[in-house]
Backbone:
């Protein structure tokens, strides 16, 4: 079994289907818990040519395609909070009715505190390029020493002192989810919008900045983006884990500041980018 995913493909039936009524369906599950993944994106991509299909999983992780015709197809699956995956190619014959089960590996969330030495954390951050980017004078950097000194109750507390960062609470008082918005992004023109977020180098939240969609095929993608954005907006940086699990943080308020490995200057980084490095990420590399 792959460390990132596993899949099974079963031939369900080939009889009784009308001509050119090939179908590919199945479920998207969590690799660690085997629980369904709702609102995931499953994409069917022909090996040659255009005309792909996109489906969003329901609350029980089910998805389905009417395949446009026989041929070889790649199947990709992704969901915020999980490592993306692509299969293929899968050969679909005329009148095939195939069922597939895909598993995605979750990114680290709600992590337990990890005790590691200061030297190990520094070595980890050197490997990720944290200190090299800090020398560039682009963005704001929160070091392990600053995190330890702050003794914050939540991850979002670590960001409250940074210029251009606003922490928004959805409820009154100190309880309830809190969300981070950046001021000064190109998209917001001085207003506030949600940044793209990376955890240990992998995208964790897409943020508010999305490419414009035009045309019939892009209209489908736009509808998917709208639904995913609602899911994305339910994510809080505090869901990543307690501050004791955080090794360092990088904050880039505008697309012009964003390093290439995190999207560079693009339409998808117009709201800025936050990069979080965890101590658990260090332990995964150590293993």
Residues:
């Amino acid at each position: 079994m792959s460390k990132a995913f596993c899949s099974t493909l079963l031939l369900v039936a080939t009889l009784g289907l009308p001509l050119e009524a090939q179908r590919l369906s199945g479920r998207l599950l969590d690799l660690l818990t085997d629980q369904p993944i709702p609102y995931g994106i499953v994409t069917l991509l022909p090996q040659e040519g255009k005309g792909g299909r996109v489906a969003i999983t329901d609350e029980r992780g089910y998805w389905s395609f009417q395949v446009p015709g026989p041929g070889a197809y790649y199947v990709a699956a992704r969901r915020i909070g999980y490592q993306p995956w692509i299969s293929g190619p899968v050969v679909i014959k005329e009148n095939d009715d195939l069922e597939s089960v895909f598993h995605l590996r979750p990114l680290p969330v709600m992590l337990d505190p990890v005790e590691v030495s200061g030297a190990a954390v520094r070595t980890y951050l050197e490997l990720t390029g944290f200190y090299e980017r800090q020398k560039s004078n682009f963005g704001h950097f929160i070091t392990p020493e600053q995190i330890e000194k702050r003794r914050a109750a939540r991850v979002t507390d670590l960001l409250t002192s940074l210029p251009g960062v606003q922490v928004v609470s959805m409820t009154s008082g100190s309880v309830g989810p809190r969300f981070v918005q950046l001021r000064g992004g190109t998209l917001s023109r001085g207003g506030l919008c949600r940044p793209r977020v990376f955890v240990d180098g992998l995208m964790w939240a897409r943020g508010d900045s999305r490419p414009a969609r035009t045309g019939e095929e892009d209209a489908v993608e736009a509808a998917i983006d709208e639904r995913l954005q609602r899911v994305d907006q339910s994510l809080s940086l505090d869901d990543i884990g307690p501050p004791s699990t955080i090794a360092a943080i990088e904050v880039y308020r505008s697309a012009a500041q964003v390093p290439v490995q995190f999207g560079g200057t693009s339409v998808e980084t117009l709201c800025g980018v936050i990069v979080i490095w965890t101590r658990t990420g260090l332990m995964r590399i150590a293993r």
Summary: The radius of gyration is 21 Å. The first strand starts at residue 7 and ends at 13. Confidence is low (pLDDT under 50) at residues 1-20, 109-113. The chain has five helices and 17 strands.
